[in-house]
Design a protein that fits this description.
The chain is mainly alpha-helical. The protein is 70% helix and 6% strand. The chain has helices spanning 2-31, 47-68, 79-103, 106-127, 134-158, 164-189, 207-231, 259-288, 303-324, and strands at 34-37, 40-43, 196-198, 202-206, 234-235, 251-252. The strands form three sheets. Strands 1-2 form a two-stranded antiparallel sheet. The protein has a two-stranded antiparallel ribbon with strand order 3-4. The chain has a two-stranded parallel sheet with strand order 5-6. A hairpin with a 3-residue loop joins strand 3 (196-198) and strand 4 (202-206). The longest helix has 30 residues, at 2-31.
């Protein structure tokens, strides 16, 4: 019992610190005003999240490449290839932010950089073939996509021209509530409904736990909407009313689709992708023969162990807030 509690304590402390840091970054983003620079509004408070996403990209790439080293030489990666992969992950988020603020071409800038770095990786594989392999090169490309491109999606959410604050809240709260719902309902009901979700990848995950995660994701998305109701406001569309605004942070709807239903759907798909991302991380760790991707976060493992779900959720959140639903 004592060993169990000793393992639970650092996990709880890390979780509390994680939530506190996220709330602090949300407060910074919400409260720090923007400055007009050459006709573009630069939201200085958003840079806190950009720093976090850059750190996730760099540390995540380092963890991924280190895990690949455990595959007993099957995927050889030369030092030059490792440097190129880490370099892309280091510049991906800052490059997006810079090109998006100055030219509104963030994704184009990152796409061009990705193509250039892939060519560098290929050249390194050719000229340093004794210390590299095709599988290793493909692993580096995957690391650049997984650890470099997906954090760019989170940065894009952070710099949406509308509803950015709301989208950040949905990204955070949906993933946290998905984990909580899966754990609470899964641990409570697994004795009666023990059917496994993916026994070869994660023996402890059950189907009923996945259902609990979906419920949690929906609750988290609606909770984000509730935060905006309490501290911001909702305007526009055919809804015909306007609530109190705080520091010009409010939710704007441009479609006739009911906004509560919109948030339920976002929470639903976000929770599904969160669990897919978690299972993918389990598959990567099983393939590499490691228990955790790192040890940076006591009780949780590495950066990728903590943010794997959020990386995948960022795609659906960006798609929802940037295109069709809101």
């Amino acid at each position: 019992m004592g060993q169990k509690n000793s393992g639970l304590k650092p996990r709880v402390i890390t979780s509390v610190c994680y939530v506190v840091i996220w709330i602090a970054l949300c407060a910074l983003k919400w409260c720090v005003p923007y400055t007009a620079v050459q006709g573009t509004n630069v939201y200085w408070g958003s840079l806190g999240f950009d720093i976090l996403f850059t750190a996730i990209s760099i540390i995540g790439c380092f963890e991924f490449l280190r895990a690949i080293d455990n595959t007993q030489g099957e995927k050889k990666i030369s030092p030059m290839q490792r440097a190129f992969a880490l370099a892309f992950c280091a510049i991906s988020v800052p490059l997006y932010v810079l090109t998006e603020i100055t030219m509104h071409m963030g994704f184009l800038g990152v796409a061009c950089a990705f193509a250039i770095y892939v060519m560098f990786l290929s050249a390194a594989s050719v000229f340093d073939h004794n210390r590299s392999s095709v599988k290793g090169t493909i692993s580096c490309v995957f690391a650049m996509l997984y650890c470099g491109a997906l954090p760019v999606m989170m940065a894009a959410i952070n710099h949406l021209t509308r509803n950015s604050m709301v989208a950040i809240l949905v990204l955070f709260m949906s993933t946290v509530f998905t984990d909580a719902g899966a754990f609470l309902i899964g641990s409570t009901c697994k004795r009666w409904l023990p059917a496994k979700l993916a026994p070869q990848l994660s023996p402890n995950k059950t189907i009923i736990g996945a259902v609990g995660g979906v419920i949690g994701g929906i609750v988290g998305s609606l909770a984000a909407l509730g935060v905006i109701y309490l501290f911001g406001g909702v305007v526009g569309g055919d809804n015909g009313y306007q609530l109190l605004r705080f520091n010009e942070v409010y939710l704007t709807f441009s479609s006739n689709f009911p906004y509560v239903v919109s948030f339920i759907l976002i929470g639903l798909f976000t929770s599904v992708l969160a669990q897919v991302g978690d299972l993918l991380e389990s598959a990567i760790k099983r393939e590499c023969g490691v228990k955790d991707m790192g040890s940076l976060l006591p009780g949780h493992g590495g950066i990728l162990d903590r943010f794997d779900s959020m990386l995948y959720c960022s795609v659906i959140v960006l798609f929802s807030f940037g295109t069709i639903i809101i």
